[in-house]
Amino acid sequence: MASSLFQKIARFARSPQGRRTIAQVKRYANDPRKRQQAKGVLGKLRGRGKPRY
Q1: Alpha-carbon gap, residue 3 to 31, rounded angstroms
Q2: What angle do CA 12, 17, 23 make, to 5 degrees?
Q3: Which of 9, 13, 40, 52 is the least crowded, having the fewest Cβ atoms under 10 Å away?
Q4: Rounded Cα gap, residues 29 and 40, in angstroms
Q5: pTM of this prediction exceeds 0.70
Q6: Helices 32-45 and 16-30: angle between axes, nearest 10 degrees
Q7: 47: alpha, beta or left, given left = phi > 0 and alpha = psi -120 to 50?
Q8: What are the helix (H) ranges across the chain?
């Protein structure tokens, strides 16, 4: 199961759409504002964001 998932991901990464997605992610990673937004989202997903009431 896991190997087929990685094969699908690798196939997507080699496709034209995958290449565009990778290029877009790299652009976002170089943008300090987007990087901060991503850090905030990851923190919330990991439970380190604002407490939920």
Answers
A1: 33
A2: 100
A3: 52
A4: 14
A5: no
A6: 100
A7: left
A8: 2-14, 16-30, 32-45
Give 36 or 2, the one with higher predicted confidence: 36
Let me know how long the chain is: 53
Here the tokens at position 28 are 């976002």
Q: With CA atoms as reference, report the closest residue to 12 among 3, 27, 23, 22.
A: 22
| Contact present, 23 and 30 (Cβ < 8 Å) | no
Q: Which tens digit of pLDDT belongs to each residue from 3-53?
A: 799 999 999 999 999 999 999 989 888 999 988 888 888 888 888 655 555
